[in-house]
Amino acid sequence: MAPGSNGPRKRGFAAMSPEKQREIAKLGGAAAHARGVAHRFTSEEARAAGRKGGQAVSQDREHMSDIGRKGGEAVSADRAHMSEIGREGGHTRGQRVAKKGRGQQRRAS
């Protein structure tokens, strides 16, 4: 490591530009498919892998909190959507609530 540098220099694949890395990886993938040794996920394998990854990510409570906060901020920024929610009394996801007009009595059940 040279004096004054911030850590070891990148070498080999890590020192290449992202474009060059992609080009080399693409050639490797094409060669594997040509030889018939490339793995192709079935829909069930892909589903299981996605489920496993989702379970791992959801264990990080701080991360999940950040996701929820960002989603809430994005929705809140949509004034038309927030206005619609307000008109529906907080009911969302396609649930329409019949509202009583002024002066109407509730029926006794």
Describe the structure.
With 109 residues, the protein is an all-alpha fold. It has helices at residues 18-35, 43-58, 61-77, 79-87. It has two domains: 17-59, no CATH class; 60-94.
**Total separate domains:** 2
Unreliable stretches, pLDDT < 50, 5 or more residues? Answer: 105-109
User: Over all CA atoms, what is the radius of gyration?
Assistant: 27 Å
Helix-strand category: mainly alpha
Mean pLDDT comes to 81
Strand fraction equals under 5%
Molecular shape: extended
What is the β-strand count? 0
How many H/I helices?
Answer: 4
Helix content: 55-70%
SSE string: HHHH
Q: In short, what is this structure?
A:
This protein has helices at residues 18-35, 43-58, 61-77, 79-87. By secondary structure, it is mostly helical.
